[in-house]
Amino acid sequence: MINKVISSIASAVKDIPDGATVMIGGFGEAGSPTALIHGLIDQGAKELTVINNNTGNGEVGLAALIASGRVKKMICSYPRSSHSKVFPDLYRAGEIMLEIVPQGTLAERIRAGGAGIPAFYTATTVNTPLAEGKEIRRIDGRDYVLEYGLKADYALIKCEKADRLGNLIYNKTARNFNPIMCTAANITIVQARKIVDVGGLEPENVITPNIFVNRVVEVANPVIESDLVAEGISYP
Amino acid sequence: MINKVISSIASAVKDIPDGATVMIGGFGEAGSPTALIHGLIDQGAKELTVINNNTGNGEVGLAALIASGRVKKMICSYPRSSHSKVFPDLYRAGEIMLEIVPQGTLAERIRAGGAGIPAFYTATTVNTPLAEGKEIRRIDGRDYVLEYGLKADYALIKCEKADRLGNLIYNKTARNFNPIMCTAANITIVQARKIVDVGGLEPENVITPNIFVNRVVEVANPVIESDLVAEGISYP
Amino acid sequence: MTGCINGWTREQMAMRAARDIPDGSYVNLGIGIPELVAKFVPDGREFIYHTENGLLGMGPEPAPGEEDSELINAGKKAVTALPGASFFHHGDSFTMIRGGHIDVCVLGAMQISQHGDLANWSTGAKGAIPAVGGAMDLVAGVKTIFVISQHTTKNGAAKLVEKCSYPLTGKQVVTRIFSDLAIIDVTPEGFRVRELAPGIGFEEVCAKTDAPLLPLEET
Amino acid sequence: MTGCINGWTREQMAMRAARDIPDGSYVNLGIGIPELVAKFVPDGREFIYHTENGLLGMGPEPAPGEEDSELINAGKKAVTALPGASFFHHGDSFTMIRGGHIDVCVLGAMQISQHGDLANWSTGAKGAIPAVGGAMDLVAGVKTIFVISQHTTKNGAAKLVEKCSYPLTGKQVVTRIFSDLAIIDVTPEGFRVRELAPGIGFEEVCAKTDAPLLPLEET
Q1: Is the ipTM above a cut-off of 0.90?
Q2: Looking at the annotation, which residues of D are catalytic?
């Protein structure tokens, strides 16, 4: 019987090695798999390349992972943290690398990585410094820049409901990067607010089909990052 | 007030001009907008380029449109008709052009067209006759072929439920090419089994957001092509 | 500074921009003053708001206490979803943007050139953290780009310039600028005043613009 | 022809292929004999079937009278959806295929070369209607490609050949062939018999194969 449910966060993330590339879902705190990120901090993997739209909030979740010194490189569109100077300080000190990618190009590169598309053309960044050094091609009279698909060794994902096969649904704008990241990682690890019986998700409404998911952990009452930030909490 | 509902099929398709490129949803008969296709036959536009996975069934729907002599070129993956020799006969007689595209490349070209991606690379067709004359690029040690996004002037779409804003949901495997075609056409015309009030579709479950839809016609009891074929009906 | 009202307030700039959005438009609003546009939908028009983090049919901010940390806009502020809304992932959201499906986007600006080049993501200064977000995708993909911006920086430097000195967000993308002093079109001949704010003269706008400025066309 | 049972039936070929699919695999089955594989899931294993027209978790054909013209497989036959199934559009369906997410695909063949090249979509003959469907995407994207096929054509021509004369579907893609006469691996050294069907000798398989054939490896 296929059963992707893992009983603890620690075992769900235990094999992430030093040097891994990790996609982390979420846009700001919405859809952020904070429990899994904290599990990764506890686990200790270092020299990570992290792909997320931002750089975390306060000193919890992704911001705490960055603060722990375990992130070698961030790939993101908007490397500003709410209520935090964690990333800017490390960046100015030369202790973290940054690859800045426009949000839509980031999304498409992830989607392409998951879909077996190694490269594609887009008009985004043409005639800007972010296109420097990249191949430009004129197609039907307009210039486009060549961008490459992005893949990861692991993806850390937050969803609303999952079943043991790994089908997922999300909640409102917490969906964001999560479904495309599920497709682009070798191992996709999901924190679900609730695990339901197989058949408990309507086939028409499944957002992430189970083929894209490897492990599911139930986190019934996930922390809300802005609450932690408001309370002044730093993880760990 | 935004209201995309059109009262008749005839008015929904009336401006499709000669020479138009028309995407038609459906895979076999599932999701085929047969009522709209019959409306297009009645309307009379000719010299059409049609994009669909197949070439229709029997002598109704797409097969009937082809039989009417109005289709100059088919772009499809599997130009075989069930219970019909309409396409093969015209093709062998040199009266219709054919661009054969693998099903996944066809889907991705349509998706790319809708997403503003003018071209992308894929491994599909490499080392086959279908890659002849196309650009090959080696990326990370594997060869890929360059394929271009596909757009259309019009898309004819079948869905299960729509609202007046143009939000759509589909029924089972009748979804197929319909959602991506909605994104890739300049004017998307939808035949919906039922039009519901705005708010009647759950925002989490909308498959085609209304931004991709221009016109919606209710066809409460659409014909089922295989029934027509079984009855030996030819349209018109 | 006197008590006289010269020029437009932030709200008035937003209202002017809203007036120029056609009925039925799909609209994306940038962070900051552009967000105010949503308050000023002209009577008889309906706009559908898109936010790039995955919501079409975005409504106003919720009542205090009704905020949901999983229902936010691109500026990460709590919003609502109107009837007829839909949620989708980032890939699909930027299909809407990159694919040319959004009609109008209203953005803020650091600099706008007389040819419509926009700079709004980085000063390019050493030590600055570049943060582009979705701005480059929006200017590359949306049919009409409006800018709402104070006419000059806090230090009085011109934002409307012959050539941007900051790194570009996009080239030849802005079509109309709503500043506190004037509404200005980007035309093939350069900046042209379309309307002056109350109490503002053409000469004053010229003085605060670092590029040639064409006067109102007589009609 | 005698009444003796020599070689495997279509069902037996499908059963042998099913045996070689690991537990928990995501599987796509081509049209024809490959469809029979779904009937022979070995005890203790669970496979999840994908059909490229937008269904993961495909179940068996429905009872007569229960068919739904909007619930079909890639061969356009009525199927069912099992608990845990999901529906999706063609773009997402081929993300699964092209993106390397499907573990095993079982296809039919017109010709297979000793290097694993597959030809199964067109004879290339004048007047033939080429019809590729999803076959090229499957061989390009799926990790393991099995072929189930009669060892020879109806006319007795070899299907296992040194070099395909028909247009290719993909190059070096097939890893194992389940024919009515034998199970044959495509190895770096060429075709190697893995198992002979009952009543079939190595010499007979050699005689019906137009390429060098390596015998069973002694273990």
Answers
A1: yes
A2: 52
